[in-house]
Amino acid sequence: MDTLLRIAHKAKIRLQLNATVLHCIRWCLLASAVLFLLAVIDRVGIAPILHWNSIGIGTACAVGILFIAQWNAYSFSLVQAGAEIDLRMKLDERVSSALSVEPGTPYADVVLSDALDIVKKKQVRSSVPRFFPVLAP
Q: Mean pLDDT, the chain, as a whole number?
């Protein structure tokens, strides 16, 4: 079961990171446009109007807060990650079923052994980064 939990956790983190990056990029592009406009306005006069060190620190803090907020907004459960593993790797719902059964029953033992066999056979653990890439939008 630990093997399945590690695989599902790894997929969960990669799914969450991908969703976070995808949603943060919009706000970062908007902030870049605003900073560009501020820079153009600041250079119109003879002397600089704005303190760019403060703006840089504030922007870095805002990006950090945005990333943390987006990370917390898009969370996936281990069962959802298992379902996504099954879908992307064509495992016929073995991993998600193994993660969702109540352990200790004969049915759970059969489901777990079947899932572990297919995970070893298809080398799922080493294939997670290939099937769950973190893409730059």
A: 90
